[in-house]
Structures are given as C-alpha cells and as structure tokens.
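Backbone description:
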Amino acid sequence: MLQALRPDGSATFVGHERVTATLAGRRGTFVFEDLNTLSPGGDVHGRWLVVPGSGTGELAGLRGEGSFAAAVGESAAITLDYWFE
C-alpha cells in the first residue's frame, strides 16, 4: 500500500492485495487493485478491481469489482461482483 496522509488526518491510499479464496466453489488466488480513502474521523471507504489475468487455479479467468465501507467501531460493509471469462 502507498498512502498520502493529509494534515487533517484524512488520506488516500492505493495498493495491490493477493487473495486466496473459494468463489462459486472454485479455489485459487487473484489480485485486487485497491483505491481507498480515509476520513479525518477514521472511516474508510474503498473500491477493488480484480486485476485481469491474475486468477490462478480454478479462479483463472476471474473478473470483478467490489467496494467496502467501514465506520470507526463498526463492521465493514463489503460487496463483490464477479464473473468468469
């Protein structure tokens, strides 16, 4: 992750994450590209994109995108829409 932190405590951060998962009964790995924001109060919001061609094993051909939002002290709300080429 690479983060740009502002004096007010807010930030924007980007990165890549390798995920090991089972989706629709298929096992493998893939890589998310992240684009995220942090509010001065600590709430985090982000968007994920599955890096095309990054799926391995039974997740080869995986495509998709998702998002998350997490308020301080709360559980994260997560979405992921995906499909296979």
About this structure: The radius of gyration is 14 Å. The mean pLDDT is 96. Strands lie at 2-5, 11-23, 26-38, 44-50, 62-70, 77-84.
